[in-house]
Amino acid sequence: MTALRGLNVSVGRLPVGELDSIADVEGVQVGHASVGGFDVRIGLSVVLPYPRATIERKLFVGRWALDRGGAASALGVAEDFGTLSSPIALVPAPAFGRAYEALIHQGIARDSGLSTDAGWPPVVIGMDDGAWNDARRVYESVEQRDIDRAIEAASQTVVEGNVGIGRGLRAFGLRGGVGTASRCVNAHCVGVFVAVNGGLPGDLRLDGRSVALPSGQGNGPQEFAAVIATDAPLLPFQLNALAQRAALGAGRCGLWNVATREAQVWAFSTSEAQADAQRAELVRLAAVDDSTLYGLFAAVAEATEAAVFSALVAAEPLKSNSHQLDVLDVERLKAAREAR
Amino acid sequence: MDRRTFLGLSFGALAAGSLPGWSAPVASEQRARARALGIVIGQMETGPLNAITDVSGVRVGHVTLIRGEGPLVVGQGPVRTGVTAILPHGDILSQSACYAADFTLNGNGELTGMGYVRRRGLLAAPILFTNTSSVGTVYDGALSWMLERDPNLFGMGDRIEPVVGETWGDFLNDTAGRHVQPQHARQAIEAATEGPVPEGCVGGGTAMRAFEFKAGIGTASRVVPCDEAAYTVGVLVQANFGRRAQLRVDGVPVGREIPEAMPERGTYKKNKSMLLAVATDAPMLPVQLQRLCKRVAMGLARTGAISTHGSGDLFIAFSTGQRVERDGSSETRMLKDRWISSFHQAVVESTEEAILNSLTMAHAMTGRDGNTYHALPLDRLREVMRAHGRLK
Description:
The complex is a heterodimer. By secondary structure, chain A is an alpha+beta fold. Chain A contains eight helices and 18 strands. In chain A, about 25% of the residues lie in helices and about 25% in strands. In chain A, the strands form five sheets. Chain A has a six-stranded mixed beta sheet. Chain A is globular. Chain B is of the alpha+beta class. Chain B has seven helices and 17 strands. In chain B, helix 2 packs across helix 3 and helix 5 crosses helix 6. The radius of gyration of chain B is 20 Å and the shape is globular. Chains A and B meet through helix 6, strand 16 and helix 7 of A and helix 5 and strand 15 of B. Strand 16 of chain A pairs antiparallel with strand 15 of chain B.
């Protein structure tokens, strides 16, 4: 159960998946690893789009990015071919190269019968979690084995709040984090995993209603990232559109505003694993009708909004020698909900 | 095609023939396609017609407007323009669409309807090429044809638009006079047929030039053998770009060796555009078709062109390999990516050859104020190619 659901606060109108998480999309798992001691609070998270042993693993992928987004690898293949064949890792920006190297190594070590490029290219999203972490210390702290740990820890139980990449995030002048949610449309499921980072204190909204917050603690990095999974058979250009709708959901709760510098959303469909081993010239693909497609658009916006709030209510206060950050007061959230 | 002074309109395949009652043609050299001259581009086999219509179901129609001569009188002429229509099949396009994608190599041009193509990944309307000032009327005429065929055109929350592209042909044509009428778009669509495609000074290509020779419409095709089936790639170009010294034919610097026959009188802008449509019967998704579109740029580069700042170099590709119902489809197919490189080669070769055909098939033309584009002299072309050991 997500943190938001635990509070009995609902967002939107669509039916929610069994776990209300990205893991409602069959095969999808999320893993986190924490890194660092008392002076660095960082970590990294991975979304595995399929069980690790799956050999046929080219999925269709789409992407949306504000101002072209922040650091990301695999853009060439994602944009030109519309395919994904790697875990998606969300890591502190200074650790980008090490995470890339770790994923390459993972790909070679796993499924040794596959060619080196079968799991290529790794998808790494580098996020600025420098609100209170020193970039040089972050760089020194992250090691390749941290990615391995996150992948090994991956499961259907998606932990939210200040875990993995969520340890170093700040949002709305509060402590940010990671959150998840899912929605169902016509027998299909769409799940969202959000790294909530950015947003100004006065901007937070729930279902269109302002959530009163104490005035914020200044600006941190203004960027967010999200990963969308769906079991609906969507083609790459449809997944691009789906990713855009996650940005609309983030905008709905105020996470995305004029101060946002970089934001990126990756969306993949687990429906069509393209079997490279299979020699057939033509591949048969399922397709969705328009009402399902636009239903999924609405679902992803709603799930993103829910996932943002779930991250915020799952976050824990930060107290260190140099930094102090509050978390979202649940009573304020309920007050916004009741102000009708 | 002989050099002619047309009075009135010519339609479709008839544009290449003679019609009773027309004024006598002015004798000039016979035009020929590159292959007929012994020039072979690339390694792949062509389709039977070496035309975009080798892709089964694809239709092409031209309306050519050539009227008057002498000094420019805006609104009266001389008129040297037209419309070229490309239809992926003969059924109602909006109810049975094709996957499609586009690519902008250089953006200084117009190709309408790309919002729908990019959003839905579908071509659900005819593609029409014309001159710059006529985009609105061609759009208008095509839309009225589409609404007649499908009254529910706007009925499903979609806004399907005609795909109308343009290039600038002001050196010969009374551009400001806007002589293309909506019915000309309709006539080009209705004249569209399978079979051989008239090339050179026809349709939207009537006033165009390439490498400072007369040019216009050109087409070519390639057969792509795969394991289980052979597919076809065909292209149609409206060519209006390039400086003389840039022209290369099969790698031979023909432009540098034929400096004569430059355009006469008047001033003409040196940087212009290219429109190109790619058709294939291979079942491909939009993401794959966009990769084909990008390879058009490589075929263009082989002719020596550089895609200047002033160009509208806009390409669209569609697949007739499967029809997509308007409300989405229960199933679709795709050719696996492992085969796509052969299609890349087919697009590059076809593009190069189509541009060459637009030159070798275009006859010299005189337009407003006596301005003249000369034709690429075929005897000189053969001489240069022979000197470089490239004639078959």
